[in-house]
Amino acid sequence: MNAPSLDDIVRYLKQNNLRIVTAESCTAGLLASTLAEPSGCGAWLEAAYVTYSEEAKIDALGVEEALIDQYGLTSEEVACAMARGALRISNANLAIATTGVAGPSSGDGQEPVGTVCLAWIFKNESGIHTYSEKTHFSGDRNQVRQAATQFALERIPDYYGKSVDAV
């Protein structure tokens, strides 16, 4: 099965009235930039936060320093906290967060280059539904960023379907 195109993802977002806020670290705004490529992006893109540093995650998104200390910057727990923070300060009903090690070297020395943690949080009539994954991508820095962006977009239908089924 082929990966969905950006047009397919955008059509899905519009059909399901999904408005996205992104909270990006290792993708450094590439996810939001990709979502903004098609004209009319204001229909599905609400806001975007690039919080590369630990301090930015804490100050802009309200990620707790203790959580970072306990799990590390490259963790599903931090990705979920980033997504929760972005959702809280926006009018979106879907938050996507990315945090990881794009390379060329491992910033924290704990996770190998290419490790990315992502979170998707959906807000619907039945509440808040949180999903996260830790994965690994190969390639240079920009290939990791591009792969993480594509992965984040491709997983939207799967996780949205689960959140709707939870109603």
UniProtKB/TrEMBL annotation:
InterPro entries (UniProt xref): CinA-like_C, CinA_C
Domain of life of the native organism: Bacteria
This protein's name: Competence damage-inducible protein A
Span of domain CinA C-terminal: 8-156
Source species: Oxalicibacterium faecigallinarum
